[in-house]
Structures are given as structure tokens and as C-alpha cells.
TrEMBL record:
PPR repeat coordinates: 74-103
Bilayer-crossing regions: none
Protein name: Pentatricopeptide repeat-containing protein
Gene3D superfamilies: Tetratricopeptide repeat domain
Species annotation: Rotaria magnacalcarata
């Protein structure tokens, strides 16, 4: 029997997001017990931005705070984090990420 890995979970979370099942996407994300990839961070930030409720804000901001430095250097991940924070109304934090990106 095949085992689930971070790519499998990422595909499912992305599928839920693509079908506008944002709560299901966060439910499944919270079951992940693997190290996350840039792609996974991006997918979950997008889900949080679309859902934009208290739970999404809590999950998204916690995930952003715990994100390792090597993932912060990825433009796609940073862009999705900025989008999420802007939708949460956290302009200051979004601007901080924007300023930290190289031109």
C-alpha cells in the first residue's frame, strides 16, 4: 500500500482550494505531520486568504510565524503571504514582507 507524503497532502489541499472547499483544505492541512514545502505554504496561504475568517487568520498567521527562513526567500510563497495578510487587513506585516524582498 502506498503511503501519503507531503506531496499527496499538498495535492489534496490544492484540490479543495480549487473547488472552493476552504474549510476542508484547512481541516486536512491541520492533519499534516510532515515538513512543509514552499508549495504547501503557498497553497495554505491561498486557502486562508480566500476563507478570510477568524480560523483562517489564526492558521495563516501561525504558519507564517513558524515558516523557516529558506521558505521566506521564495517569491511565490512571499507573494501568497502578502496577499493573505492584505486580505486580513494586516497591512503593516504585508509591507514588512514586501520590503524584505529583493528587487
Amino acid at each position: 500500500m502506498k503511503k501519503k507524503n507531503i506531496i499527496t497532502y499538498g495535492a489534496m489541499v490544492k484540490g479543495y482550494v480549487g473547488n472552493e472547499l476552504f474549510e476542508k483544505a484547512l481541516d486536512l492541512f491541520e492533519q499534516i505531520h510532515f515538513s512543509l514545502t514552499n508549495v504547501t505554504y503557498t497553497i495554505v496561504f491561498n486557502a486562508c486568504a480566500k476563507l478570510c475568517n477568524d480560523r483562517a487568520m489564526k492558521v495563516g498567521k501561525k504558519l507564517l510565524a513558524e515558516m523557516p527562513e529558506n521558505c521566506r526567500n521564495d517569491n511565490t510563497t512571499s507573494n501568497s503571504a502578502i496577499d493573505m495578510l492584505m486580505k486580513f487587513g494586516d497591512i503593516e506585516r504585508a509591507e514588512r514582507i514586501f520590503r524584505s524582498m529583493k528587487t
